[in-house]
Design brief:
Elements: H1 3-9, H2 12-25, E1 30-32, E2 40-43, E3 46-50, H3 52-59, H4 67-74, E4 78-83, H5 84-95, H6 106-115, E5 118-121, H7 125-133, H8 141-153, E6 156-158, E7 172-173
Parallel strand pairs: 3-4, 3-6, 4-5, 6-7
Antiparallel strand pairs: 1-2
Helix pairs in contact: 7-8
Length: about 180
């Protein structure tokens, strides 16, 4: 749950109720629905999940990440998430020498997340179950779990992966990365 809700309402129970309503509505922002005349936006936060490549580009200095995507991630009005699967993928690629872009340790990446308000999501059984339901358009296990997370949590996935964009069920935000 976004820290902004707790700060705004001061009561964890009210915050949880509002969060649950938003999740049930699958709307992607927090709002209390009622008859049109009394419907009122409480908080118009957007929920975004970074795929591994986007997260790497965000963590890099001299990044290839487009300016508007960096601004979106930096915007305190948005809730930004990264899957622990992305950190796992980075660790594996660092170990086998396939990732020279990131020299940070996992602890440094976690600190980078904390400093930049990026919430690291754990794996959930529902995400694993969802991966079984996804068509085999994209076979990369890390991307499949990230897609399943975005679907299950109703997050917009920030990705440049054209294979992920082939899935109708995944809500994606794509901006062409800068050329090196």
């Amino acid at each position: 749950m976004g820290d902004g809700l707790r700060e705004k309402f001061g009561c964890p129970m009210i915050s949880m109720i509002l969060w649950t309503l938003c999740q049930k509505m699958k709307c992607g922002c927090l709002r209390l629905c009622g008859p049109p005349k009394i419907s009122k936006f409480i908080n118009c936060r957007r929920l975004y999940l970074l795929d591994t490549c986007t997260f790497i580009w965000y963590a890099e200095t001299g990044s290839r990440l487009p300016k508007d995507i960096r601004e979106l991630i930096d915007n305190g009005d948005n809730d930004i998430f990264v899957s622990i699967a992305s950190l796992w993928e980075i660790a594996i690629k660092q170990t086998i020498g396939k990732l020279d872009d990131i020299k940070m340790t996992m602890f440094e990446l976690a600190e980078h997340c904390r400093e930049n308000r990026i919430i690291i999501l754990p794996l959930e059984l529902s995400y694993l179950e969802k991966t079984k339901q996804l068509p085999l358009i994209h076979r990369d296990p890390f991307d499949r779990i990230i897609m399943a997370t975005a679907i299950e949590e109703h997050y917009t996935l920030i990705t440049c992966d054209s294979n992920i964009m082939k899935y109708d069920e995944v809500k994606c935000l794509w901006e062409k990365p800068k050329e090196e």
